[in-house]
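step=encode ok
step=design start
structure_in=
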């Protein structure tokens, strides 16, 4: 099941009716069951859609097969809720994913499954117990299925390997997006540039400097902030790459000096992933015997969680991406001062930034599942509050210096 908020269909309870999409279902009247069925149906439609997109976008055959199976499971669940709605004589919308699910699907197609996988995994974990107190779901085994989906996606997301050709739940060839959740990093990176430069230009504008001076100060802040973020990201990724290379070197030395110990460690890793002890030992022995040419690669992935081919990704790509995202966010409050002057420039900058802040808040709901209006409005209030405070401070400083 995949958490979907808001729903793409317009079905609202009458006065006094209520339901929840997560955890315990509170039955308030005779219509609440059909309301709950509609909510469940939409979530299963979203899940089937997203897993189908992940399967189509995935390059590794074993991973694509996993996503296809998950999609089939969600379609089966959706069919069960459809039947209950039909039996209850309730009309329901066609099989259309919600807007949130469609956006995540677009991002998965454009940037790859790993870009959205942490978000989907987080939502699966949060919603894994949604069917616990629904007797219909227990009867159909949906609750157990959803918990299984959450556990499996957690393993896929937390391991830096992937699904191995040898074992159904072993992960190989799979790396998390550099730095974890790439979608989260992209949203927050642009938000950093937006809020920090908005506060900066408002503080400078409050000191009664002309628009040209404000723009120059803002550009200096943009370059300094983006450069600092890029350098920090480069150092972080490059340090990780050097650490990974050193760990692989040590692993190679240990493999050459004590292969029996490495085989035992590999067996323990497979046991930790859920394999029975006998099967784990059998698998590790087979790998040490039959895959001598790639044993170091396998040990690096399974024991260290490192993809030797990538070593955490390119430090230069990470630095450039951080620079670009910070700069993109910073342009919204800065550009009005390039074309306008006086209070008009200040008001326009605040207005444009408010829109951008709302969009950032809306983008965050892709990860949190919260209401779009609530999250966007909260982001606007916090961002503009920071800008107003710095504007006031700048005003005070300008008056004291001018006086």
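sequence_out=
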């Amino acid at each position: 099941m995949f958490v979907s908020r808001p729903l793409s269909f317009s079905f609202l309870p009458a006065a006094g009716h209520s339901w929840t999409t997560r955890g315990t279902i509170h039955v308030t009247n005779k219509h609440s069951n059909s309301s709950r069925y509609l909510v469940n149906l939409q979530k299963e439609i979203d899940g089937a859609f997203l897993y189908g997109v992940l399967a189509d976008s995935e390059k590794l055959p074993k991973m694509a097969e996993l996503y296809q199976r998950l999609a089939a499971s969600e379609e089966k669940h959706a069919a069960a809720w459809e039947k209950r709605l039909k039996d209850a004589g309730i009309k329901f919308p066609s099989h259309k994913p919600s807007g949130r699910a469609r956006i995540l699907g677009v991002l998965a197609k454009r940037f790859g499954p790993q870009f959205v996988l942490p978000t989907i995994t987080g939502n699966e974990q949060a919603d894994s117990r949604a069917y616990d107190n629904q007797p219909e779901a227990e009867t159909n085994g949906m609750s157990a299925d959803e918990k299984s989906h959450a556990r499996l996606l957690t393993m896929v997301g937390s391991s830096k390997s992937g699904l191995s050709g040898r074992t159904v739940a072993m992960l190989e060839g799979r790396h998390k997006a550099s730095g974890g959740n790439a979608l989260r990093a992209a949203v927050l990176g642009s938000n950093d540039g937006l809020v920090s430069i908005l506060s900066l230009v408002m503080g400078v504008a409050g000191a009664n400097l002309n628009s040209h001076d404000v723009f120059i100060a803002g550009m200096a802040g943009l370059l300094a902030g983006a450069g600092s973020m890029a350098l920090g990201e480069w150092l972080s990724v490059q340090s990780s790459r050097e650490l990974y290379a050193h760990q692989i070197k040590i692993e190679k030395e240990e493999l050459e000096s004590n292969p029996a110990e490495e085989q035992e460690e590999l067996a323990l890793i497979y046991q930790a992933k859920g394999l029975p002890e006998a099967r784990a030992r059998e698998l590790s022995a087979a790998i040490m015997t039959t895959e001598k040419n790639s044993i170091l690669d396998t040990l690096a992935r399974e024991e260290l969680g490192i993809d030797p081919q990538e070593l955490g990704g390119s430090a230069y790509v990470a630095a450039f991406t951080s620079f670009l995202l910070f700069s993109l966010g910073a342009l919204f409050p800065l550009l009005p001062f390039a074309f306008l002057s006086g209070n008009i420039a200040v008001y326009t900058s605040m207005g444009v930034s408010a829109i951008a802040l709302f969009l950032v808040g809306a983008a965050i709901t892709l990860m949190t599942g919260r209401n779009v209006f609530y999250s966007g409005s909260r982001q606007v209030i916090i961002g503009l509050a920071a800008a107003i405070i710095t504007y006031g401070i700048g005003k005070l400083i300008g008056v004291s210096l001018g006086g």
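step=design ok
step=annotate ok -> The chain has three domains: 32-158, 182-232+315-402, 240-304.
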